[in-house]
Amino acid sequence: MIKNELQNSLKLRKLLALSNALQILEVVFMITLTERAAKQISTLQSDLNDGTKVLRIFVESGGCSGMQYGMSFDEPSVEDTVIECHGVKVLMDPKSLEVLKDVTIDFDDGLHGKGFEIKNPNAKNSCGCGRSFN
Question: pTM of the predicted model, to two decimals?
């Protein structure tokens, strides 16, 4: 009886791991980090001196247009999807992942640079600040 439960538990874990791997593969094609963004994230992560924290990109209510983008360094949670691009890992919760489908994240550090820019083809409107959309 215990042996069967252990085998079923192991099978379930393998299925969950496969499901997560497939989800990550699907997301890789949905979210794009430019090389400049990846380089800046890597620099910020190095400055943080905490190997357990990864950049979280999220969406929350607020801002001029109803929703706004946010970024913070955080530890991964069970429901997060980890995206890796150009050697940099980024976390996203399920709600944010849905809203950020097909986005490109860039970093502009030029003369009039704004910092991180999220180009979201799904946003109907966005504010001039670049952080708020609907």
Answer: 0.68
